[in-house]
Input
Amino acid sequence: MSAILYPIAVSVEQALNRPLARATREREARKRAGEAVAFVQELAGPGFSTREAALSAYAGRLDEIGAGTPPAPEDRYCRLVEVIAPGAKPPGERRPVLRQGQRWPTPAAPPATIWRISVSYWRIGGADAAPPPQARAVRKTGEDLDAQALRAIVRAPLRPIRPQKALDIGLFEVRPPEAPHILMPDE
Output
């Protein structure tokens, strides 16, 4: 089984068109780039109004039905995503109405969407930026965030607040006095 060789580049356009090199793991990417790298996923290229138009524009790059010949297994670092069109208003919060036997109001028309290509790659110098704050810490402060900061928090990996505590001993387990580092079942 071959692994995906992600492009190493400074920007998403460079990753899509002419990457500096390609690597599977961070260690390889750091070695080939000669500096710190960060794994990122970014949208590239123009937006297409239909899925079929996007599939035909990126034929040979996507591993999806209708995209033509699929790429080699190591070239599967692109995927097609549907996003809300710029300027379109996302659906707001809906509250139950409980009128005439209906709990929810009639749904509003969905916002206009476009199809774009999402590229996963190793960004050179991307590790220098500080990681976004934890979502629970932001909620406690109550500050309003812009859309870009909110997306960064959502896409960040889960990090613990503090190190995990040692596991408790179960009901039927004991530590023998001569070897406290061993956990034995007790009958």
Observations:
- The first strand starts at residue 6 and ends at 9.
